[in-house]
Amino acid sequence: MKLYEIDAEIEQCILIDEETGEVIGIDTERADKLQMMRDDKIKNLALYYKNLMAEVNAYKSEKDYFAKRERVAKNKAESIKKFLNEFLAGEKFESPKVNITYRKSESVVIDDINKVDKQYLKYTEPAVDKVEAKKAIKSGVLLEGLHIEENQNIQIK
């Protein structure tokens, strides 16, 4: 039985007089059994959540470990590439297992950003400092376009 079905069954345990609408009794034995089922369902779902979060943390830990190893390997590779580039100084190298060649590319170098025409500049969108705005609102400052919204965040431990 699903959780919402259990709640519906608990509601049906209340006996109501159809003519007057008064509560004439409660099937307490059935309601107690359904309440125990409901509590078990909630407990099991919460435990399942905790188990999944433990898996998430384990995956994150492994991901962080492998990200660190990836960074170390990439830095070593870049260091070797830089060394080879300086050592060969544009000279090609060929062997049966590896070829080292060079290709030309172009890039723009900024000498003085103040002299650059405005049409070639990029501007970022403004962003609200939510931490400072929250402090200001809580201290009584009225900020147009902003408000604090209270949320209910479930905690399962």
What does this structure look like?
The chain is mainly α and about 160 residues long. The chain has one domain. It is about 50% helix and about 5% strand. The chain is built from three helices and four strands; from the N terminus they run αββαββα. It has helices spanning about 5-10, 30-90, 130-140, and strands at about 15, 25, 95, 100. The strands form two sheets. It has a two-stranded antiparallel ribbon. Strands 3-4 form a two-stranded antiparallel ribbon. Helix 1 runs antiparallel to helix 2 (about 30-90). The radius of gyration is 33 Å and the shape is elongated. This is Phage protein.
In short:
This protein is mainly alpha-helical.
Average of the residue pLDDT scores: 90
Structural class given helices, strands, pairing?
mainly alpha
Q: What helical percentage do the residues reach?
A: 40-55%
Element string (H = helix, E = strand): HEEHEEH
Low-confidence sequence ranges: none
Q: Distance between termini?
A: 25 Å
Give the tally of β-strands: 4
Give a quick account of the main beta sheet: strands, pairing sense, barrel closure.
Answer: 2 strands, antiparallel
Strand order of the largest sheet: 1-2
Number of domains: 1
Query: Quaternary status of these chains?
Result: single chain
β-sheet strand percentage: 5-15%
Number of helices: 3
Q: Characterize the overall form.
A: elongated
Q: If you compute it from the alpha carbons, what radius of gyration comes out, rounded to the nearest whole angstrom?
A: 33 Å
